[in-house]
């Protein structure tokens, strides 16, 4: 049985890790742990999560009433409490702004490609919860629908949120989420974000089922030909529409013909 003080020490330790990892800037981010059915420990607002001490943490109930602590609780408490309410099995929630994941959230790109076995088995797909003003009901409602079938979400134009069966679990999911976003970004620069095939993804999902990991996984690329076609398509063609290409060809042809006419 973990004591309340041990939970507080855990929160401070994970706070230091998210700060040292560069997952948050200044006083950003917030963490929470469920310590009983209707009691939670949450981080304070206006404090760097890398330098918290146990007495700064607050004990709150499921309605957000402060039961213990003299600091002001995180302004995102409502979002944390909603996740717990939605799924009683969830024991901890992590919210941070890791750079690569946040860039995907800003670009409106969910992490739903089967690019690595780990992201299929362990992380699953990470959808985008529609933008809501931080600390309001909007953001909680946007997250709500994803809690049951996912292990985390990207918060549109904001950051990322993960939940798990312990604080360490939720933190590792966040590390995995940021790592997946980073690798995905690097592969995209090489025009090589090739996905695993559906057959290979099915093999991974059977491993995932055996391991007892729930949640939606990416579906993978449809066929091997599809993968190769994607690999061989030049980047410029992928980023331009057929209409754009027609216009460019027309303009270049016109310029060449004009240049030839001048020579003649
Ligand atoms: Zn935030």
From TrEMBL:
<dbReference type="Pfam" id="PF00596">
    <property type="entry name" value="Aldolase_II"/>
</dbReference>
<protein>
    <submittedName>
        <fullName>Class II aldolase/adducin family protein</fullName>
    </submittedName>
</protein>
<feature type="domain" description="Class II aldolase/adducin N-terminal">
    <location>
        <begin position="9"/>
        <end position="185"/>
    </location>
</feature>
<dbReference type="InterPro" id="IPR036409">
    <property type="entry name" value="Aldolase_II/adducin_N_sf"/>
</dbReference>
<keyword id="KW-0479">Metal-binding</keyword>
<dbReference type="InterPro" id="IPR050197">
    <property type="entry name" value="Aldolase_class_II_sugar_metab"/>
</dbReference>
<dbReference type="InterPro" id="IPR001303">
    <property type="entry name" value="Aldolase_II/adducin_N"/>
</dbReference>
<keyword id="KW-0456">Lyase</keyword>
């Amino acid at each position: 049985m973990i004591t309340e003080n041990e939970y507080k020490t855990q929160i401070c330790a994970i706070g230091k890790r998210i700060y040292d990892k560069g997952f948050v800037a200044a006083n950003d981010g917030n963490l929470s742990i469920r310590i009983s059915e209707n009691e939670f420990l949450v981080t304070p607002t206006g404090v760097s999560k890398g330098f918290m001490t146990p007495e700064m943490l607050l004990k709150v109930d499921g309605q957000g009433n402060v039961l213990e602590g003299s600091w002001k609780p995180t302004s995102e408490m409502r979002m944390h409490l909603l996740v717990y309410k939605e799924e009683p099995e969830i024991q901890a929630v992590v919210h941070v702004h890791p750079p690569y994941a946040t860039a995907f959230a800003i670009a409106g790109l969910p992490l739903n490609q089967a690019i690595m076995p780990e992201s299929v088995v362990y992380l699953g797909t990470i959808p985008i919860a529609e933008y809501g003003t931080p600390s309001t009901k909007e953001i909680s409602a946007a997250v709500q629908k994803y809690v049951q079938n996912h292990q985390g979400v990207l918060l549109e134009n904001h950051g990322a949120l993960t939940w798990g069966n312990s604080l360490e679990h939720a933190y590792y999911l966040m590390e995995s989420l940021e790592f997946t976003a980073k690798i995905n970004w690097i592969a995209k620069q090489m025009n090589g974000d090739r996905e695993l095939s559906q057959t290979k993804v099915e093999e991974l999902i059977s491993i995932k089922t055996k391991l007892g990991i729930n949640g939606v996984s990416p579906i993978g690329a449809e066929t091997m030909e599809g993968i190769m076609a994607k690999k061989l398509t030049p980047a410029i063609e992928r980023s331009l529409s057929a209409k754009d290409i027609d216009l460019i060809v027309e303009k270049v042809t016109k310029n060449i013909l004009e240049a030839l006419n001048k020579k003649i």
